[in-house]
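Input record (Table S2, row 435):
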Amino acid sequence: MASETLDTTVCVVGGGPAGAMLGLLLARSGVDVVVLEKHADFHRDFRGDTVHPATLQILDEVGLVEKFHELPHQKVSTIGVVQDGKRINIADFSKLKVPYPYMAFVPQWDFLDLITAEAAARYPSFRLLMCSEALGVIRENGRVAGVRVRREEGELEVRSTLVVAADGRHSAIREDIGAKPRLIGASLDVIFFRISRRESDPDEGICVRIGNGKIFGATDRRTYWQMSYETGKGGLEDIRRRGLAAFRADLAALVPFLADRVHEVASMDDLSLLEARIDRLEQWHAPGLLFIGDAAHAMSPVAGFGVNLAVQDAVATSNALTGALLHSQGTGAAFDDTLLAKVRRRRRLTTALSQGLQRGTQKFGIDSALKGSGQPPAPKIFERFGPAQKLMSRVIGLGFRQEHVRTPEADRQRPPSPPWSAFTPQAKPDEEHQS
Ligand SMILES: Cc1cc2nc3c(=O)[nH]c(=O)nc-3n(C[C@H](O)[C@H](O)[C@H](O)COP(=O)(O)OP(=O)(O)OC[C@H]3O[C@@H](n4cnc5c(N)ncnc54)[C@H](O)[C@@H]3O)c2cc1C
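Output record (flavin-adenine dinucleotide complex):
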């Protein structure tokens, strides 16, 4: 039995790019929203730090783009592959006719801190509960009516008109209701590590290097290179078996300008393994419940699609549902659950196409590169066929379907509240934002 209960209109589970952006958008229009995040902060590495031209435009539409550009960031115009020692650009965003023709690299925790702090400061109906882990849904009268939450202080029930599960690729809500996503293709092991950067290093942006049956990715973070090593299953055991010296030699061979620093990979502890998978739910909603972002469709790191797609899901959700949520909040009328299908209808094709592109890149690029010394044919297409690069710039930069914020900003009736720090469920609504 939960010791505390909290009522809201929308309970968003997960404070990643999808959940944080949805929380901001709903609160911006006056919808009462609680975002639950199980961690104490957003400080986790290797979560995808790419903010695409389409996401920059969305930040502009909600009045945050200037503040975003005040964060330490790096603008990257091209994504390339080095094959046979020659760089081939796969995407060149500078050719897009958009307000922000580049990809901005910002640590994801800075991006999420900005969105949630601004939402809390500007919109009184936004509440973010950190250290709050959703355990499962509350069911009532055949529909989802809220979420059971574990907090340090004890268990909490968040009761809501709608629950949006944006809790990522290992979604607890998905697990709780027994929804099983379909795996699309084989999963991939990605091993991350860092190597220091020197002034004399090439100005590469993001670059993937392919050769000798190996793939290394290098992302320029100004003071260091964020390196990734893509392998099939069991990649870490393989490195352990062959020894770190062999791994360092592979790295030096493929990324020669790092050869003098490969010793910075000093032990296996310097390598972090993440499993990348692509999967998708067939059914994105149930009465009172909607899945968005990776919880609905897990993305792999290929082409850095996931964050952009998650943010666009949030925009499509707020565009489709804000009016009905405000009506329900204002009048007490039942929420029309059939509207949830609109979100899936709008986002399903673009998701399937994005995942298809990731799957195709994995199959025809990554898998064939890993199979042996042969070079995958895919990057050469971009060299020989000009429109391919143009198309890829558009697809990676803007997505297959670009979303724009269509919801209005509500009058800010109450004075701005400080960024969320210490929510107590017992507090009365007017007191909550003053603590
Ligand atoms: C190895 C790897 C590298 C990647 N690199 C990139 C990249 O460079 N660029 C890119 O665009 N995409 C990248 N992606 C994909 C990208 O990370 C995801 O697509 C994107 O983060 C999805 O956003 P989301 O908000 O849906 O989910 P997430 O980012 O996973 O956020 C979910 C949030 O929910 C919280 N949460 C989880 N369970 C609960 C719970 N029970 N209760 C409360 N909170 C909970 C989590 O702590 C997290 O904060 C990468 C993926 C992988 C696996």
